Amino acid sequence: MRKPVSIAIVFCANFFFVFTIAAQKKIPKSPTITVKDEAINDIQAKYSEYKEIALQIWNYAEVGYKEVKSSALLQKTLTDNGFDVKAGVAEIPTAFVATYGSGKPVIGILAEFDALPGLSQEAIPEKKPIEGKDAGHGCGHHLFGTASVAAGIELKKLIEAKKINGTIKVFGCPAEEGGSGKVYMVRAGLFNDVDIVIHWHPGAENAVTMTSALANKSAKFRFYGIAAHAAASPEKGRSALDGVEAMDNMVNMMREHVPQETRIHYVITNGGKAPNVVPDFAEVYYYVRHPKRELVVSIFDRVVKAAEGAAMGTGTKVEYEIIGGTHDLLLNKTLADVMQKNLEKVGGVIYTTEEREFGKKIQSSFGYSAPAIETAAIIKPIKADEDAGGGSTDVGDVSYAVPTVGLRTATWVPGTPAHSWQATACGGTEIGTKGLIVAAKTMVLTAIDLFINPALIEQAKEEFKKDVGDYKYHALLGDRKPALNYRD
Ligand SMILES: [Zn+2]
Question: Residues with Cβ within 5 Å of ion ligand 1?
Fold first, then answer.
């Protein structure tokens, strides 16, 4: 670089004084470049590498417990970077724990990577599924997994360089979407030695999570009837579909008599094959949700009663299989405050002109007015929400095992709903991968604060203990084995 030379000409009492200020020496490396700034620069320097990984997983688009290639790619990335990876944990082939370092504190980072059925979509701003593909990353978990791996690798580097001391663990968490993958990992005790867990989620804005989640319980109800010719001998048949429909009717009447915040939804996953055959088998898949897990359990029991009544009335038999069950999400104000400062330091997402155009097209498909595109650059102030939000997450179960903190970043254009083709589309572009980098940086900076300041961890644990009280954790899905085929 050319050395800058400054020349000042000063007019003073009829004389010109010409000063030539000595050429400035090359600036030595500023002591203000902290560990945090180095980490930010490091992650940014590896942007294209992480972008490639995320887009690869976006392409794989593997659904819950079938994320063989996605999990393998993240595991390989961690192994190549010096992590010790243990795969197939908690009796789940695609779950893993990657560890680096030793001693306390132990900081965990969650990584998800499952896609959603029916959300295949090209990376373009109009609805167009990818031919021959059913699933798509409509919840951005390809970004989720990649950012968490990126954060883990950067923290490993800092431990190796002795800038921080302790252990970093990246948890590869399959089947978040309905499979409750983390519940089995909590049940298997994988978080027992972890001090703090950090996570994030793709979104349409940048904010630290201060909204809880709904506890839920889900099950598949299977009705068995008797097949017969639907016109020639209907009296000999008993319709399994009648069983499903009678159950659905009863549950729909029940909606009037459950607490206001309850959510119950179902899809008929098998309703028979042909109208002229009385179906001898039918299946309906139910979710029950409420902010309080005790209420989820009691409402779910009433849904089971409806199933039994329906079977009795239709002359069919019913059995059910619990598929998933998750706790509400415990928040931690101590950790959230730390994360907020770091998110503010990192800043939001800035779009290029082309990305803005893409984003405006996406927004015009909503049919409602969306926040300005530029709000993707803004960090929302921290604020505890009164309600529990509308979704559920198996991070809830982790939050009952370890003090947990998370954020969401703008990986989708402002206003984009999760589980939409628009979310899949944005996730397949740099709109998504830019948000991934914001998340990775924020998680690293938050972990640095925790590694260098044990008092923060203690304070977070105090808050956690108070919130859990004397509740003894019990998985809502009971002791069933992982539902590895729940997407079949
Ligand atoms: Zn999600």
Answer: 139
